[in-house]
From TrEMBL:
Protein name as annotated: DUF3160 domain-containing protein
PROSITE patterns: PROKAR_LIPOPROTEIN
Pfam family, one: DUF3160
Lineage top rank: taxon: Archaea
UniProt source species: Methanofollis aquaemaris
Amino acid sequence: MHRILPALVLGAALLIAGCATVDDASPPAPTVEGAAAENDTDFAHSYTLKPLEVTPSAPQYALPLDPGTVTNWEEVVAALSLGEEEQALLKEHGFVVAAYPFGDQDEIVGPYRTLGEHDVPLFLSSDTLLHLYHAQFDDTLRRVEEREFFDDLRALDVALLNASEKAYRQSSGEAKEAARLNMGYYAVAATLLAPDAEQVGDGFDPEDVKRYHVDVPAPVRDEVEAELALIDRQAGLTPSPLFSYTEDYTQYRPRGHYTQSERLKNYFQAMMWHGRMPFLLNATRQVPEEEARIQTAAAARTAALLADDPDLMEHWDRVYEVTAFYVGYADDLGPEEYIAAMERLFGGAKQDLTPDEVDALRQELRTLDPPAIYSGTGYQNVGSPEEARKALNATMGFRFMGQRFVPDSYFFSELVYPYTGEFTGAGEPFTLVGGYRSVPTGLDVMALLGSEQARTLLDRGEDSAYAKYDPAYGRLEAELAALNESAWRQNLYWGWLYSLRPLLVEFGEGYPTFMQTSAWQEKELTTSLASWTELRHDTILYAKQSYTFGKGPATSPEKPEIPGYVEPVPEAYHRLGALNAMTADGLFDLDVLDPAAQRRLRDLGDVIDRFTDLSVKELEGVPLTADDHAFIRDAAETLDDLVINLEARTTLVADVHSDPYEKIVLEEGVGPVDLIVVACPEPDGAVTLCAGPVLSYYEFTHPLDDRLTDEAWREMLREAPPTRPWWTGEYAVVA
């Protein structure tokens, strides 16, 4: 489990309330001190960040900008076809974001080459490095999933299926029913991994069809076939044939990078099954007491089987630890917690528990932390925060490879119905659906990460105009403020968020003039939201998604030296460099880093260091050298090497929150790149227009039964793209 955030149980909206067997009192909240101490034993040691000393004293110029003071105004305006509206914003703020003028472009390196061919000085953006890190993160994860985790997971499922079938034949009574449930559970997972004939040629060969075939045991064949049919249809909110409680089968649509091969599609569905389906600890309205006992006995048997077989535990631990390094630890109880509980009670893990031992184990497990994020299990209406908190324990239970606690999903679960109360505004904000705050917004995340501008936009757009929003937001803000620095370094997910925080501050005196505007804060907000979207896209299988309750109750020729500029945010680059090094070192230590990925991460680290050094020079008014100018001018050639053989398109999408009551999901998307044009100051007092690509960002709701893949998103962008967030119009002229 290993979560890092204080007072987790304050949120964690839950399901299926009103069961007499569940204690009405919420468990005690974890403490900040305990969370920090636990975090110190995890991956934070892989992250090294030395202080960066910078004294901003960049040259300034007056706004609104006088084109007559800019050395290349007419040339750049003509080369980039900037219209009157774009020029007006450029004069007002010292920069403007516009549509990329050379056709839709969904990769971030090519535009630098094209701009250079038009003799436009280059502006190297933070967006570029963040996107290139995403490409490395996503590719390394995808490769280890295909190369190793698929077979690790299959070995686990087949072995546990066989052991469950044997136990079923040898057991009686409650133990036999527990073995039967496990038999069905692992048969579903093993069958999801197995290819059919139509999948041969894309990740599978003909022999794989025979090699991975699963003979489903007769006693569970009907239920397994019914589960597989629901998964295949992505059938929505439907009672599980095996578990009785309601499951959201739309979650089994492969998304993110998992559409890139048939092998990844199968892995996605099997891992989603293991991440979402709990063996519940307590009885609920949908799961009677007898069934809860059977589910607990079944979970205990799985945990004991792993404890008794070092080879099986090695397979499980390898998948869990590597994915924990990327995303974090599970939000739910798992094998480790069940093994430890049995060791405390019985002196060791036991495959066969007596009825009294099942009772004792359930009582022991109830003393542990419940999940913090409601993920839709056993979907149920609640009418108040109190009902939701009393229902918290009802989702407690065992997940074989539980989805991970991530802070942004936790924020979302706390900032929607029923925790935010009734709408008190007069307009129609984005978050208002069905009379309540049914969906959160990425602005919630950015505000809590430190963006005062995001909080201002929440207020201006009435997305905070709910009776209880401010108290809920304040609790989360206090929890984050109490975290020590190591909490932000516990894994790559948190480290990515930590790298965004320097972009979300207000840039004061000494920074370039264009950066001191509120418009620049909104540009950086867009960059951060787009990068966060890429993070959620890459981790869509593992990050636990929040839900809303129901309501109701080669050598180049010589080139002339032309000016160029690096977006001067050295602290962001400094943290990204530490994160990149943590990625390389951690994956190497975990023995899952191939030589090509190791080289790319090393080269990316060199580029990040160069961005950092150039940023410091610019902020301190130090003239760039000829070598510095050559680095900026030749950026396309340098960056090309970082994306060879990678899927590095910017057009991607991720659903990050679900509201089954309104039958919608919150989608976060990145589209083709935009163009930023910036009036960049030179140490000699000259002002030069420089341009480069930046990420675009979209946020919109979409039908629950049509969760978007990257391919579907790209089609939507071509045919009927959604509108951009309203506030981007203050600095951007885009369609």
